[in-house]
Amino acid sequence: MVAVPELPEVEALVAFLRENAVGRVVTRVDLAAVQAIKTFDPPLTALGGLEVTGATRHGKFLDLDVSGLHLVVHLARAGWLHWRSGLPTAPPKPGKGPLALRVHLEEGEGFDLTEQGTRKGLAVYVVRRPADVPGVARLGPDALEVDRETFAALMAGRSGQLKGALTDQTLIAGIGNAYSDEILHAARLSPFKSADKLKDDELIRLHDAMRQTLTDALGRQVGQKAATLKGEKRSGLQVHARTGLPCPVCGDTVREVSFADTSLQYCPTCQTGGKPLADRRMSKLLR
Question: Which of 5, 25, 177, 283 has the most crowded CB, counting CB atoms within 10 A?
Fold first, then answer.
């Protein structure tokens, strides 16, 4: 899925909420998908009547500070935030359509949290401290804040493949399937190379590619309206979700490796010495 929210999209949503929601009072919160709420104390109703005082991000988690309580959201694979003007006053019917949560603010505005598809993973927490959310407590350093020395140490301690290392939120926070493909392409590294086998120059390339890829994406997306962020993400991709198309760097055909519920894309010429990677389901991976 191309538009899964990752660090740049969540950061852009945070910037949008700082501009449009901070300073506004929450008048009501409607829960439409019971499975989305993961906490019960404080209750969702505790947010009513409180002012939104801040917005921030922890990895791929969005955190709205509501006068000291925190509405923390993980959008998962198919979740999104939609800003609404003129919200309906009638509460939504539970279980109808993609709506998971609706937050009403003053003057009839607010936002919906939605999730497409039948596989539901969007998660909402109301907590007193962001660290009370298990996924937040387990996060590694933020991908945009980790320095080169720390990054090298993290990779050296990881025996698995680079693709898995970059997307492990407990190792480095904020990178998902799409941007890991983009980072590895920019660094000219195979997704299946072992993280602890990187040479010094490869570590430097990978760290620089991570920072540059995410910074460039942020530059394209921060300041966009929430409704246009997904399209902006797609427009900037070089290899992810571009199977069969020419690599914009060398012109070779972008290839894909499929797994049970996801896939990765790469360029053989740029990343694997011209050799296609084997499908894990059929044969041993090319190192």
Answer: 5
Average pLDDT over residues 140-167: 96
User: Which residue segment(s) compose the domain that 99 sits in?
Assistant: 7-137
User: What's the residue count for the chain?
Assistant: 287
Range list of H helices, the chain: 7-20, 134-137, 148-156, 162-167, 177-187, 200-221, 229-235, 268-271
Vertex 153, ends 160 and 264: CA angle to 5°? 35
Q: Are residues 189 and 256 in the same domain?
A: yes
Q: What are 182-229's pLDDT values in tens digits? A: 999 999 999 999 999 999 999 999 999 999 999 999 988 777 666 666
Nearest alpha-carbon partner for 13 in 174, 215, 223? 223
- Alpha-carbon distance 199 to 220, whole Å? 32
Q: How far is CA 169 from CA 6, 7, 72, 103, 141, in A?
A: 11, 11, 16, 28, 9
CATH number at residue 96: 3.20.190.10
The letter for the amino acid at 127 is: V
Q: Is the dihedral of CA 93, 96, 97, 102 positive or negative?
A: positive
With CA atoms as reference, report the closest residue to 2 among 249, 211, 176: 176
